[in-house]
Fold this sequence. Notes:
- This protein is mainly alpha-helical.
- It has three domains: 17-86, no CATH class; 108-179, no CATH class; 200-235.
- The protein is built from eight helices and six strands.
- A two-stranded antiparallel sheet has the order 1-2. Strands 3-4 form a two-stranded antiparallel sheet. A two-stranded antiparallel sheet has the order 5-6.
- The model has no long low-confidence stretch (mean pLDDT 79).
Amino acid sequence: MNHYTGSVPDTARRTNWRDEARCGAPGTDPDVFFATDDDSIEDAKAECRMCPVADACLEYAFAARIYDGVFGGLTGRQRRRLTRRANEPADVAEEPEEPAEPPRLETLHDAFAARTKQRDDGHLAWTGKQQFSHRGKVYTARRAAFAVSRDRDPVGQVMTSCEVADCVLPAHLTDAQERAALVKPLPRPQERRLAECGTRSAYQRHVKRGEPVDEACRAANRRAWADYRRRKGAAA
């Protein structure tokens, strides 16, 4: 029996929650969501509160065990604390079930190289998505570029020093730790040289500080007064 109803199957691509995320919108710097200072963290949370897919983003972070950055309005520390509470059994401790992970490239260097392209002007362009996951961590283009070149994760926000906004050349990037190291402390003012004993200035210093006055300073003070009286008498 023919059950054809005449309807046309829906072949349109299913919308991914990432397509509607505010952190991936043009003009939004995704590194803000991985900053460590309090003001930037609060700005990231404010963006999440206005995001239409914040719940899906938070569920993804919990499922993938991502504890870096702000996801769904919660920091990594907050997500870790909630995960720890959820895994605390009432009676018998059970081994947590490992989530299925999607296939990943072997190293972060491979992942970075696969998403970049050398430009003719010497800069390095990013060709992948704004964020990607590697070994349980989420990287933005700049954070990945910094990590592969320094063999450590960046501290705070990663910023570029060149005029090309989308450049991810590691030599053009700095994190908060490197920027702080570039700020040279102001030179300390030179200490005032103390007058040597045997002078009237040293005598006055001893008297002012309540220190014992040595004979050389007493003699220098007497000579100074005698010279003063002599000049005063000559002037009269």
